[in-house]
Amino acid sequence: MTGRAIVIGAGIGGLAAAVALDRIGWRATVLERASEPGEIGAGMSQSPNALRVLDELGVGEQARRVGVPTRATGNLRTADGRHLQRARPGDPPALLAFHRADLHKVLLDAVPDGWVRTATTVTAVRQDGASAAVGHSGGELGADLVVAADGINSTARRLLWPDAPAPRFLGRTAWLGVAPIEGLPGSVTLGRDGYFLIHPLSRGRAYWAYVTTADRPGVRYESGKAEAARRTRGWHEPIPALIEATADDAVIHTDIRDLDPLPTYVNGRVALLGDAAHAMSPDRGQGAGQSLEDAVVLAAALAEAPTVEAALRRYDAERRPRTQATARGARADGHRTTSRAAHRALTTMIRLMPASLWRKGIAPDGNPTWRWRPPRLRRS
């Protein structure tokens, strides 16, 4: 089966969907609200499941050229600098770290010319059973399928899932930044009220994120950099140096939210993808990775099923249990790593775990999430 699709959103998930559709012989138009396609944010890591998707999309080599191996899952420390677990130099890291903009560009470059329309705001999504249409600021487009990859505040979800709960604040907030410091191996520092993540990036940079608790969303400070520094005062190096080396206006402060489980990701000929379907906290590093998985599973279903409706039923059945379980796990992990009450038990458990057992758990096939393999994409 081949056809024509409209993809709403040109973030990582939307672009991956467009690349996957192209690989099975579909055509697509990607509608992006921003005047220039790009990615908001700082750094990220991708685990083996996501890297396999990038390979299946034909961009794995390009992605690895802009990614940097990170040992963050192997180097765990306390705020005073003591190591709870320590990566061995010879162990192959399971994760690759990226600046979000770098991975976004890899995907954007793989989308066929002319498919992405910028400065286009979606206002309506309609369908009559045999086709679907998207109303937007420049008119209306019709297609066989609509893929809504328009993020946690999805317009399509609001229009077609009107009873779905709004995104939920998880009682946590984060400061993010990128500093011109090279040579860091990656690490996670567990403090009493939060954690500090470090990933190395390409071109001599390092990404950092400080995640902690918050009573309510929307609280902002005159200087996000100064507030992050204040909250981590006395923590071990290179944490103070990373914050200090980050430009004042480059520190991002974001509140952490996710979505309660939806009963379905499909409405007629419309499929939710990525954060529009299952936005999750960052604590398992799976937000973008699950969006990539969505894209390849959707494309494989479209290539193999006899109808769009049958393909979307398969997509929903395959993706909803996995993504919702991952989101629940991320929410639980986030509570454990930012709970003062759980801090001592967590750090004691990690410190007492045999290093060989810890390394086994963070190996490329060390957990069920990372072991997932994508379907093959074949042209119809």
UniProtKB/TrEMBL annotation:
<dbReference type="GO" id="GO:0071949">
    <property type="term" value="F:FAD binding"/>
</dbReference>
<keyword id="KW-0503">Monooxygenase</keyword>
<dbReference type="InterPro" id="IPR036188">
    <property type="entry name" value="FAD/NAD-bd_sf"/>
</dbReference>
<feature type="domain" description="FAD-binding">
    <location>
        <begin position="5"/>
        <end position="328"/>
    </location>
</feature>
<feature type="region of interest" description="Disordered">
    <location>
        <begin position="319"/>
        <end position="340"/>
    </location>
</feature>
<dbReference type="Pfam" id="PF01494">
    <property type="entry name" value="FAD_binding_3"/>
</dbReference>
<protein>
    <submittedName>
        <fullName>2-polyprenyl-6-methoxyphenol hydroxylase-like FAD-dependent oxidoreductase</fullName>
    </submittedName>
</protein>
<dbReference type="InterPro" id="IPR050493">
    <property type="entry name" value="FAD-dep_Monooxygenase_BioMet"/>
</dbReference>
<dbReference type="GO" id="GO:0004497">
    <property type="term" value="F:monooxygenase activity"/>
</dbReference>
<dbReference type="InterPro" id="IPR002938">
    <property type="entry name" value="FAD-bd"/>
</dbReference>
<keyword id="KW-0560">Oxidoreductase</keyword>
